[in-house]
Amino acid sequence: MPLWVFITLSAALFQCWRTALQQRLRGQLSLNGAAVVRYLYGVPFGLMILLTYWLIMGGSFGPVNLGFIGLCALAGIGQIFGTNLLISSFGPRGFAVGTAYSKTEAVQAAVIAVILLGEVLPALSWLGIAVSLSGVMYLSLAGRGLKGADILRATTQPAALCGIGAGFCFALTSIFIRKANMTLPGEDAILKALFSVVVTNVIQTLLQGGWLLLREPKQLLAVFRTWRNSMQVGALSAFGSSCWFVGFSLAPVAMVRAVGQSEIIFTLLFSRFFLGERLKTKDVLGALTLVSGVVLVLVGALR
Predict the structure, then answer these.
(1) Are 19 and 274 in contact (CB under 8 A)?
(2) Dihedral (CA of 165, 171, 172, 174) sign
(3) Beta strands in 98-252 (DSSP E)
(4) Cβ proximity of 108 and 163 under 8 Å
(5) What are the contacts of 213-220 at 24+ separation with CB within 8 A?
(6) Keyword annotations for this protein (predicted)?
(7) Which residues pair with 119 in a beta bridge?
(8) Percent of the chain clearing pLDDT 70 (strictly above)
(9) Phi/psi at 82 (5° precision)
(10) What is the pLDDT of residues 111-121, one digit of tens each?
(11) By three-state DSSP, how is residue 186 classified?
């Protein structure tokens, strides 16, 4: 198995685990409060991961430039909006379905990467992405008619709009991350990716933390009061982001995001056994269709 595939699967697991914990925090914090903990508490863990890698592997990279900082800022802003939209999507139809809608990011990332980065995907991988998208559509349309008006209502429901919007933001984040790694001088792609995680999380903490300070000061205090649970979210976020950033540095964005759709398997397990949500048969079938698409993507990539 290529290293980037293993790293991407790890990223999917960490992300699902972290999002499930964030969903629990929604009972104690506002939307922005639950979102900011992943950055605020993620910074020290990100530094730990970066220093551990550097102490073991060594290496260096060139001077930080404004282009790199700007791209990290754009990636951070995209991730902030994506996280808020993702959390918002859970309310209407639950954790599993909200996450499934956000997985349209694979298709969106593929199209954006082709346009902005010139990435090329094999035909079988494109087929896999299409199959995954059909799984998302099945989730959206399950229990509804197939007339034009029914399709329009299903794809404009709150869960769909928030989830697909989150996918778009995460797709843009992926592009900015890869561009940031390419902008930073140096030969060790993994070291540069881990440094990018720390820089991005610091920027995110300043941006969303500043928003809380100005608009929701009581929530900022609540973020510190819930430090035990919030620290777990931060740790998982740091490990997950590190894996995503490294994956983007080692393989095309579209491939990483497509394989990352395997998160839906972890999501179903967390939804059922961690959050206690009851899953409908149609939701499981739609999710499994997503996974079959991921398998096709991998087969196409490894041929």
Answers:
(1) no
(2) positive
(3) none
(4) no
(5) 215/32, 216/30, 216/32, 216/33, 219/29, 219/30, 219/32, 219/33, 220/33
(6) Membrane, Transmembrane, Transmembrane helix
(7) none
(8) 85
(9) -65, -40
(10) 888 787 777 77
(11) strand
